[in-house]
Design a protein that fits this description.
CATH topology: Heme Oxygenase, Chain A
CATH superfamily: Heme oxygenase-like
CATH architecture: Up-down Bundle
CATH class: Mainly Alpha
Structural class: mainly alpha
Bound molecules: fe (ii) ion
């Protein structure tokens, strides 16, 4: 995949964020990821990535419980399987950096945790919604957000991490494309579209604020 051309340009996330905040978000990510990090720092960063991947898996698993439409269920299953694999890939990188026992000792396995951090709880009202438009809005926005962060990190990552990142990023691009194409086909109602636009603006705004907090938290 060509990662040189701007990713997610024209995405629902960047449209909801608006050009000023989108530019600021990307600039802040670049500054954050350009910092020098030793192995311990990197393991801590990857633990945060892993927690984020796990949170998406937990969210999708919840959605699967009340979803009967085959196309939608199959999409949730496929994306959840790939997010699970991303969590494993980050765990592998953490182990390579600090060793198996240190990973187990320092970083609790986030799998199955009900609420992973205060950050996630801010937008969990959207993640736990029963509405298909809201769920698809959430998926398209959150995956584009994580993809933008990963894409920024590509510039600064060492070669082993770069391989992992490229693999994950290709999936995130596909997830955003899948969510956006499902919105196009499965949310035809104008009222639903209007509600979805409000949800997207709220989720994008929360992510923007939370990212600013995360990037200045010393992780
Ligand atoms: Fe992922
Ligand atoms: Fe994803």
């Amino acid at each position: 995949m060509d990662f040189e051309t701007p990713l997610f340009e024209g995405s629902r996330f960047l449209r909801a964020l608006g050009p000023d905040r989108a530019g600021q978000l990307i600039d802040r990510c670049d500054i954050f990821f350009s910092e020098h990090r030793d192995h311990d720092d990197l393991a801590r960063l990857f633990a945060a990535f892993r927690a984020s991947e796990h949170h998406t898996v937990a969210t999708l698993r919840e959605w699967m419980r009340d979803t009967t439409e085959p196309e939608v269920l199959s999409a949730y299953c496929d994306v959840a399987a790939e997010e699970s694999r991303h969590a494993v890939l980050w765990t592998d990188r953490m182990r390579a950096l600090v060793g198996d026992s240190e990973v187990a000792r320092r970083y609790a396995d986030p799998c199955g945790m009900p609420a992973l951090s205060e950050h996630f709880r801010l937008w969990d009202s959207y993640a736990t919604s029963c509405s298909l438009p809201t769920r698809l809005a959430y998926l398209s926005i959150v995956d584009a957000w994580s993809g933008i962060a990963y894409n920024s990190y590509l510039l600064w990552a060492d070669s082993s991490t770069r391989e992992t990142l490229e693999e994950i990023l290709a999936d995130e691009v596909a997830h955003v494309g899948l969510a956006e194409s499902m919105i196009d086909r499965l949310v035809p109602d104008d009222d639903d579209r209007e509600t979805m636009a409000i949800d997207e603006a709220c989720i994008a705004g929360l992510l923007y604020e939370v990212t600013n907090g995360f990037l200045s938290s010393g992780i």
